[in-house]
Fold this sequence. Notes:
The protein is mostly helical. The chain is 77% helix and 2% strand. The longest helix has 33 residues, at 222-254. It is globular and about 55 Å long.
Amino acid sequence: EVLHLLQPLYETGFLILCSKSLVPASTFYTHLMSTERDYRVKSLQSNDVNNHDDSEYLKNVLIQNLFALYHYVSAFPEHLGEAISHISNPELKEKLCNVLTGNYWHSNILLKGLMELGYSKEQVKQTPPIPATLGVINYIRWLAKTDLLSYAACLGLTEYPAVSEETAHTISNYIQAEWDNIELLNLLPKEALNYFRKYNKIDYIKARISKDFFDAETYLTPERQTEIQSRVRVFIECQKAEILAIIQRSQVIAA
């Protein structure tokens, strides 16, 4: 009875277990997302961008972020396919295969957006990710091969959380307002940004798959819990390094 009452506090991150005990995988996932999403937001905040008024610098930051998004979306089918090849649960494998099929061509939306910026199709496809972006992608690829739960946990940080319909509507409006604010800066043509806005809408409503990995498991040992959290923290550090790299490259280009 006591454990039942305390479980919501643990899942929301308000309560941390001090005793070394087995925890249901799905319960641990909910707890991890609550604590690590908050940690990620705080870690990735950058005043260097928010407080900068140099339009050329901001334009370079935006372009590099759009290219990074293109590379992430392009890499998704590859590392998800790798993860699927290591899954034995037939129900989970079938669901992920359906997700893979549905997401395979999403990068084409972003490709069209980049082409609206004046890049040819060949230029976009031949432009490699910057080293820091490649580092994030390769880390995810490695987890897809070696540690499915840590892979899923890192994916979970990039997914929009499951919320009520009313909250979902509020979040959707907020996302569109953010794109409105970007357009008002007049850094890039609206026609190009519309493709990224369109993808963002699709990304918000697409299937959330990270929890399914944990739902297919039973209990996690304390050691396994620590390992997953540690690998999630490495993922966040990789993302932080990417943000800093983009800022530094943009400063050099704008100088």
